[in-house]
Amino acid sequence: MAAESQRKATVSSTVEDYLKVVLKIEDMKQRASTSRVARHLEVADATVTDMLRKLKKAGLLEYKPYYGATLTREGRRMAVRILRRHRLLEMFLHQVLGYGWEQVHQEAERLEHAVSDLFISRIDALLDFPSQDPHGEAIPDARGFRQVEDDLCLAEAEPGSYSVRKVTNSDPEFLAYLDRVGLRPATRLSLQEKAPFQGPLKLLPESGREPVYLGLEACRSIFVLPRKDRPPASASAPDGPASREAGTRGSRK
Amino acid sequence: MAAESQRKATVSSTVEDYLKVVLKIEDMKQRASTSRVARHLEVADATVTDMLRKLKKAGLLEYKPYYGATLTREGRRMAVRILRRHRLLEMFLHQVLGYGWEQVHQEAERLEHAVSDLFISRIDALLDFPSQDPHGEAIPDARGFRQVEDDLCLAEAEPGSYSVRKVTNSDPEFLAYLDRVGLRPATRLSLQEKAPFQGPLKLLPESGREPVYLGLEACRSIFVLPRKDRPPASASAPDGPASREAGTRGSRK
DNA sequence: GAAATTTATTAGACTGATCTAAAAATGAGG
DNA sequence: CCTCATTTTTAGATCAGTCTAATAAATTTC
Ligand SMILES: [Mn+2]
Ligand SMILES: [Mn+2]
Ligand SMILES: [Mn+2]
Ligand SMILES: [Mn+2]
């Protein structure tokens, strides 16, 4: 063997989307099973089985029948490349063309396959090499290097002070809602209480005065960073005086 | 019949390109024959025969076997829409992302199918509703209205003073060459002589001091406007104290 | 640990876009 | 009007991506 290795293998936009989904699933520390991939792409399971076999043959991922897929080095490289394009495009649409954060995803989902490398490098420079997209997600750099994301899922957070790090949901309705109640990346908020039995969280975004009650499910797509807790205050507060958190310079809006 | 009429018919990018080519051929006052369409798209004739039948069935063009195609109202509407997108995108790439005029076509050829109407209207506004693309071609307006283009093919022009109106050629090499010798939209030049027997034309672009000898064939893609002939003046030096050159800010490398 | 449920694969088909090779129509010239 | 070169269509295939229905493997439940 050892016959592959011609760089520049060019793949269809369909393949790019499959790879991106597998990456996303792996990032969530889940198994990229046939049905999971199928759900993300909204295609039939049988279609995925087929495609995974093809992608394995193309050397882009490992595939064990009845188990699922794992990206190879090359497959991951391609997936990260598309992820970078996607997020850079979202930032471009938001910053340069004035798209709302709930509008960017859909457009980027198509453009990521259509623009050239030149286009990407031009918008990268135009945006001054941003490190995050409008949802607060990290943009891999040109060499495919990805920032570590050490944030906390709001659904698992304890009452306290936080700031919104990212929102991993692309449903326009949902995003428009968050925007309305004043929850977007960099917003500071305090989690005031969590109702028991999968109940909603009571949040106070720094912007709006009104508290917001958000269902637990919805909170799963919001990620936050703990903040050096509010003024002296009372007991509780399981914090550490903020140690980590290097990299990730914010620049957005 | 009378069963069509559901607006919003969405077509593939392949279909969009077919329609655009038929429009282009019709604009050149030629018959959109199978083989001519095939040549423009670089596909086999048989492929075109097939597609033209499909497009006829879809109501986008008339198709007479052994004769060729003619756009219907609806087909023309779609074709003009893509043409608008293409040219607006070229202008955007040139003005906003600093692409050279020889680089824009290829990228626009893909993007024209991938961007949304929102994207188009945003770049249109950003560019302040331009009426021409970087090659000097008219950009149809949002309602599909197309400016009449009353220009003259340089290949058919008599010696005299002209200004370059548009260049209808998308070969990057060729465009880069024209750029180098100082021939681009809005450039003033004098056609000094035409060699007989399909010989080259001797041109003096206002910018460069050197005369340029351009083959007749090449001149077929350059269109000019006659200018109120050079000042009284003597024989040579058809200059003007540097006035021209509005639009098209150059920035490339 | 067998049955029931869930998940995955196989089989068979379809659509859109393309090709090559062969057959047929067109049109120019004699 | 007949012949031949050119253009076009027809026939038959392929490839990517998708589907549904049937079958089979894996996992969960009792
Ligand atoms: Mn997105
Ligand atoms: Mn996509
Ligand atoms: Mn063009
Ligand atoms: Mn195109």
Features:
DNA-binding; 15% strand; 8 strands; SH3 type barrels; 6-stranded antiparallel sheet; Arc Repressor Mutant, subunit A; alpha+beta; binds manganese (II) ion; homodimer; disordered N terminus; 253 residues; two-stranded antiparallel ribbon; disordered C terminus
Task: Write a compact overview of the structure shown.
The structure is a homodimer of 253-residue chains. By secondary structure, chain A is of the alpha+beta class. Chain A is built from 8 helices and 8 strands.
Bound molecule kinds, no repeats: manganese (II) ion
Under CATH at level 1, the class of the largest domain in chain A stands as: Mainly Beta
What's the assembly state of these chains?
homodimer
First-residue to last-residue Cα separation of chain A: 50 Å
Radius of gyration of chain A: 20 Å
CATH architecture of the largest domain in chain A: Roll
Give structural notes.
2 copies of one chain form a homodimer. The first copy, chain A, is 37% helix and 15% strand. Chain A has 3 domains: 13-71, Winged helix-like DNA-binding domain superfamily/Winged helix DNA-binding domain (Arc Repressor Mutant, subunit A, Orthogonal Bundle); 80-148, Winged helix-like DNA-binding domain superfamily/Winged helix DNA-binding domain (Arc Repressor Mutant, subunit A, Orthogonal Bundle), CATH 1.10.10.10; 152-226, Ferrous iron transport protein A (FeoA) (SH3 type barrels, Roll). Chain A is globular, with a radius of gyration of 20 Å. The first copy, chain A, has a 6-stranded antiparallel beta sheet with strand order 3-8-4-5-6-7. A two-stranded antiparallel ribbon of chain A has the order 1-2. Chain A has helices at 13-27, 34-41, 45-57, 73-95, 104-114, 117-126, 172-180, 216-219, and strands spanning 61-64, 68-71, 152-153, 160-167, 188-194, 201-205, 212-214, 222-226. Mean pLDDT of chain A is 89; it is low at 1-5 and 233-253. The termini of chain A are far apart. The first copy, chain A, has 253 residues and is α+β, with helices and mostly antiparallel strands. The A-B interface holds A 93, 96-99, 103, 106-107, 110-111, 113-116, 118-119, 122-123, 126 and B 93, 96-99, 103, 106-107, 110-111, 113-116, 118-119, 122-123, 126. Residues 86, 90, 105, 108, 170 of chain A line the site of one manganese (II) ion. One manganese (II) ion binds at residues 17, 109, 112-113 of chain B. Chain A binds a DNA duplex (30 and 30 nucleotides) through residues 12, 14, 33-35, 43-51, 54, 65-66.
